[in-house]
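DEPOSITED CHAIN:
***
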Amino acid sequence: MKSPYRFTLLGVAALALAAAGCSGSSSSTSSGGTNWATVTSASGGGGMSTLIAAAKKEGKLNVIALPATWANYGTIIKDFKAKYGITVNSQNPTGSSQDEVNAVKSENGTAKAPDVLDVGMAVALVSTSLFAPYKVSTWSAVPAAQKDANGLWYQDYGGYMSIGYNSAKFGTITSVSQLLGPKFKNAVALNGNPTLANAALSGVMMANLAQGGSAASIAKGVDFFHQLKQVGNFVPVQATTATVKNGTTPVVLDWDYLSASHGTDVPTWKIFVPSNAELGGYYAQAINKAAPHPAAARLWEEYLYSDEGQNLWLEGFARPIELSTLVTDGTVNKTADAALPPAPSGGLTFPTQAQQAAAETVVTQKWPTQVGG
């Protein structure tokens, strides 16, 4: 399953792909002469109808690290293809945010390069030199604090870090510390490696807060997982839909909207958000400034930030960035909104950029030797 700040190097593209990419790059200019690679809004390129026509002419869109079960992306991709007749090439669906950035760096100049990215904020903030500025038509509905002022990135959906578990096997979980108990032998997992994946890093941060740590220091979270490993409770594999279904990872620290989807396969699956460790987080969209299909890339973003796209994220149990606007305007899918996992009632923590960077540094230094996996 995709990890929110995703990291393994992809191989350099073959020379044959490079040659193909050169011919593909010409699609950036429509029949009307618009260079969509430099357009910063739909209106700036002649309006939505012009953008749609240019995207259809390109005929393709490359996305990356979007599992079908992640925030309803399977349906989103299918509906986008049906609506516009554009082929969507989904690459490395189990990849990390860093995988996405690595793919941009290694594959730019080819027809295979990612057109759009969906990355954790830690990766987004240090990768802006790779992004094209673009402001979707609903730009004003995205809070100022949750977007780059120039449109290099904009947050898309989020949720709360949680403990998801098979209640038939473990009863009711009421605290993070319970996971150190003997009944959780070989049971507790993360969504990836925290040195590579934001979902996993956030799981360590939640444990850190529960153990009395602060957003400014994640050390107690690493110590907690060191203890989990020592007692034999930590499962050093990436939790996925398959591992939850087959029982390999019956307890998972992950975003609530991802965890909620496991209830389809495991009816006794429950979600718990610790009241002393309420951690929130959002992902961000960005367009590759060297996208081989620049019009399709911009149309994709317009679709995601339309009422239709926002409600599709909502149907995947994720909280779309424009949710409050959807509610106010009466365009929200009320059934999907009501089905969201319960929101925390206490003091929610959103790590700052500096705190996130500090957490990455500590985990990178300590995780390999103290926990591993």
